[in-house]
Every structure is written in C-alpha cells, then in structure tokens.
Amino acid sequence: MDFGGINPVILLASLMVASTPILLAALGEMVVEKSGVLNLGVEGMMIFGAVCGFIAAVETQSPTLGFIAAAAGGALLSMLFGLLTQIFLTTQVPAGLALTLLGTGLASLLGQNYQGMSPPRMPDMNIPLLENIPVIGPVIFQHDAIVYLSLIMVVAIWAVLKFTRVGLILRAVGENHTAAHALGYKVKAVRFAAIGFGGAMAGLGGAYISLVRVPQWTDGITAGIGWIALAIVVFASWRAGRVLIGAYLFGGITVLQLNLQAAGAKVPVELLSMSPFLATILVLVVISARRHGASNAPAMLGRIFHSS
C-alpha cells in the first residue's frame, strides 16, 4: 500500500536503519554523562569511527572487522579527551569541541584516498519465521546485526545502570564524586572506562553510516548526527528507554523528509532538510519548559574532580 508514492512498510523499515547510528551514539554519551563527564566530541568520534571502519572494511573485505576497527578508533580518540579532562584537568566543554575538530580533520585526511570506493555489503540477519509475518516481518525482523545490537544495548545499559554494582558505582561517581572517592571508588578509572565506552559506541554509530546507511566515504558524512545524539540524551532525561524513543523520533522525521522529497512534495527542499533538526529543537524546548528549571542531569556533570 502506497500513500502518495510512499510505502509505509519501507518507510518504517528505513526508520530503524536511519535511527541506529543516532541510538548507538546517544547511548554511549548517556553512559559518559552518567559518570559526570560531558563530552561534546561525539561528532568527532563518530566521523573518526566512520573512516576507521570504512578503511578497515575495504582493506579486509570484512564489515565485521570494519565495525571492530570503528569501535577501537572511537575509543582511542575518546582516550585523548579522557587524558585532557581527567589527568590534565582541562575544562570539558572546550576539550570536547577540540575533539570534534580533531576527529573531523583526521577523518578527512585518512579518507581522502577512499572516496568513490564501495565497502563490502553488510549481510542482513533475517529472523526465521518472524521475518514472514505480514508488515511486521519486513519492518522489524529483516535487518542487519547492528540494528539488533543497538536494541539489545538499550536493554543491557538500562539493566546494568539499574540493577548492578557497576551501574551503582557509575551513578555514584556522577552524583557525588567526592563521596564516591571517600568510599574508595576510583573516580578517574570509572570515568575513563565510561569515556572509552562512549567513544566505542560513537565509533560504531559512525561506521554504521559509512558501511550501511550510506555505503561510501565522503567528508562530513555524519552530517551533525553527533550533535543530535547529544540533544537526545537531554531529551531522554538520561534514561535508556527514552533515548530509544528520541533516536527513533529523529530517525523517523529524517526518513519521512527524504521520502517526501522523492515523492515530489510541494515543500521547499531546504525546509524539509532542516525539519529533523527543527523538530529536535522544538522537543527540547517543550521538555525544558515542562521541567520549570528542574533537571535530572547527574549532579557532577561537567565538573572537574580534584583528587587529593
């Protein structure tokens, strides 16, 4: 069934693909912020992961190795941020912005000889029996492994933060790092681990763009998705389930505007292209207004820990 040239089944299936890189990056950043660290370098880690994954996949002809390289590249770049903020006690906001500039520059340098190349195709991991269910099957059960991994990570991160000792320590460090240190927890080690995890997740999200969603390498391929991931963490009130909703909301609007352009909608292309970002800003404004100044952010978010 088509609506004005738009097939709703294809639209919904595409929504999951478009939302996956945002979801991965936002989940990683949420964990980082839960530890009390604000890393604005998500965009830089994503695009650096995108180029690392693309190069590895092209050279080895293995998308799996590409994703592994992307996670490693994102984590490695995030360690520079960790070094600056946790060891040299640099202010986190400018350090994050510098990380974005560095990641973008490195990606442009490393990827200049790979433009125009095609990576190996990421195979779908169709789920037997379920994939044959009308409408639901093609929408949910005919995707690649990274889509399912992103959904598993939502549940895993929620469970770890809520029910495990690791999650308790992470949240304690984010809420009061002085008290956590007094209890014997290694605040900087916890934050380094969170920063590395966030970098790996951002790298995976970037690689999903360059290997699956837009299977090629071009400069600026992430197109601001890292900044949207940062906004979604705030929109989600630092909760994994809401991060999923926010990522799918943005991904849905992105896919819809692309389909409207293809269907020849009589709306300026520029307005359609900016609609996902406008929608994200609108949601953030509404959420902020409803809170009346209240915040669910970790109490130590962005603050420097001075160990004695």
From TrEMBL:
The keyword Transmembrane helix applies. Its main location: membrane. It is a multi-pass membrane protein. One of its GO terms (molecular function) is transmembrane transporter activity. Keywords: Cell membrane, Membrane, Transmembrane, Transmembrane helix. This is Nucleoside ABC transporter membrane protein. The keyword Transmembrane applies. Pfam families: BPD_transp_2. It comes from Celeribacter neptunius. It is found in: Cell membrane. GO terms for cellular component: plasma membrane. The chain crosses the membrane at residues 6-25, 37-58, 64-84, 96-115, 135-161, 192-211, 217-236, 243-265, 271-289.
